[in-house]
Amino acid sequence: YRLGRYTLDHFAAPMPNHCTLLSRRHILKLSILLLLAALQLGSAYAKKPLIANLKGKTAPAFTLPDLQNTSQASTQFKGKVVLLNFWATWCAPCREEIPLLIKYQERYAAQGFTVIGIAIDEPAEVAPYAQKMRINYPVWVSEAQAAEVSRQYGNTTGVLPYSVLIGRNGKIIRQIPGILKPDELPPDISQALKKK
After folding, report:
1. CA distance 188 to 184
2. Is the distance from CB of 115 to CB of 171 less than 8 angstroms?
3. Residue 17: enclosing H or E segment and its boundaries?
4. pLDDT per residue as tens digits for the range 109-121
């Protein structure tokens, strides 16, 4: 069988050195081109921020169903410091940070703070998971609607988990794409709670 000017025997037998060198050159050139293309693509992606910066802007009002399918309005927490946490049961980093959110709720709730877990997920998946984890803060759930709220809060790339800290005055204090670090938010929460 002939493939261009080569026969199958050319591929079965070792190639002469000049063909091997030529192949190595082509492989090297191709590798360099692929590397440059990857760097260019990576550079373009790196320039695009994960989130739209909304610091200092008024937090958009929204309504979502809770785990009992009752509509809940974000405006009911007016005058409180609120940490919105967008998450999903299928997201491992989201599940990893839930114990930290439970601790924040325990530590700061009496001072006028609440976490609101907004699950971009199926209600049938979220309810048993919330019960199993003993989540002590409100959990609202919806797939498309919650994803849209996340976008309104600056999550332009759909990263999860995604958290937004809102002050008593309804202004966005901080946005955190990705998993929270244990010591990352307490100073901001404490500072926000001091403001009346």
Report:
1. 8
2. no
3. helix 17-47
4. 999 999 999 999 9
